[in-house]
Amino acid sequence: MIDTHCHIDLYKHPEKVLQECEKAGITVLAMTNLPSHFEMGHPHVLPFKKIRLALGMHPLYATQDQQEFSLFLKNLTKTSYIGEVGLDFSREGIETREIQIMTFERILDAISSQKKILSLHSRRAEKETLNLLIRKKIQNAIFHWYSGPLTLIEQIVDAGYYFSINTSMINSESGKKIINSIPLNRVLTETDGPFTEVNGRQTKPSDIVLVQEYFSKIWVKTSQEVDSIILANFQKLLSMIR
Questions:
Q1: Peptide bond preceding 194 in cis form (omega within 30 of 0)
Q2: C or N terminus of the chain, fewer CB within 10 Å?
Q3: Please, are residues 84 and 121 in contact by the beta-carbon 8 Å criterion?
Q4: Bridge pairing between strands 27-30 and 2-6
Q5: pLDDT of residue 99
Q6: Section 55-79 average pLDDT
Q7: Integer Cα distance of 63 and 79 in angstroms
Q8: Alpha-helix residue ranges (DSSP H) falling in the chain
Q9: Tell me, what DSSP letter sits at residue 242?
Q10: Do residues 54 and 29 touch, judged by C-beta distance below 8 A?
Q11: Contact between 147 and 178 (Cβ < 8 Å)
């Protein structure tokens, strides 16, 4: 199982989650919301073979850019994964729109010549996020929990990017329509734990199996075939940064 977007540091007992993932052989791209969070978490993640900590600058934390961006640059060489980064023009984030754009552009400029994989937040800002990625010539990116227009999916695919699907998406009508519009070779799995729930509890990386079971049903594939598709997609993405 592969969880390409999970906030392990925000669980009540992150060490326990790390150990559970390692024991189960689950590959996790662990997001952070600020570079200072990455600095705190990085030493704790290093002993785990299948956990990779991503360097993040969440758009809803845009007002902390001045204090945090130097830390982003300082830690950039420590990881091949960047996330959670992006734009949020929802009601929650719209007031900091201009700061977000400036920060996101600075992030993209910093990594444009480097081999990195981005996990993107793009709520109500999907078109703007895509345009910036293309303009800055970013090659490797995953649109995490995509909730934008169906008409934009083809453009995202044509640009070479991926989509990560979680349990909330497979349980909503809009999410199902989005999933049905994504080619199989651009699909990855995520939980976005602990921000999603399953049966009244916080989602864990092991709940990726629920997303895989959903794919098995709608794709009319065996569980082994679904595993192979997701793994091949992930490995292709990884091959771009090696």
A1: yes
A2: C
A3: yes
A4: parallel
A5: 96
A6: 94
A7: 24
A8: 14-24, 35-45, 65-75, 97-111, 126-135, 153-158, 167-170, 173-180, 208-219, 223-239
A9: -
A10: yes
A11: yes
Separate counts of helices (H) and strands (E) for the chain: 10, 10
Quick: pLDDT tens for 150-172: 999 999 999 999 999 999 999 99
Amino acid, single-letter form, for residue 204: K
Can you read off the two tokens belonging to residue 44? Answer: 């704790």
Omega of the bond leading into 20 within 30 degrees of 0 (cis):
no
Residue indicated by tokens 């600075």: 106
E strand or H helix that includes residue 198:
strand 197-198
Q: Is the pTM of this model over 0.85?
A: yes
Cα(160)–Cα(142) distance, integer angstroms: 10
Length of the chain as a residue count: 242
Q: Assess contact for 205 and 17: CB atoms under 8 A.
A: yes
Catalogue all structural domains in the chain, each as residue range(s) with its CATH number: 2-239 (3.20.20.140)
- The answer for 20, left when phi > 0, alpha when psi is -120 to 50, beta otherwise, is alpha
pLDDT digits (tens, 9 = 90+) for 23-55: 999 999 999 999 999 999 999 999 999 999 999
User: What is the identity of the amino acid at 137?
Assistant: K
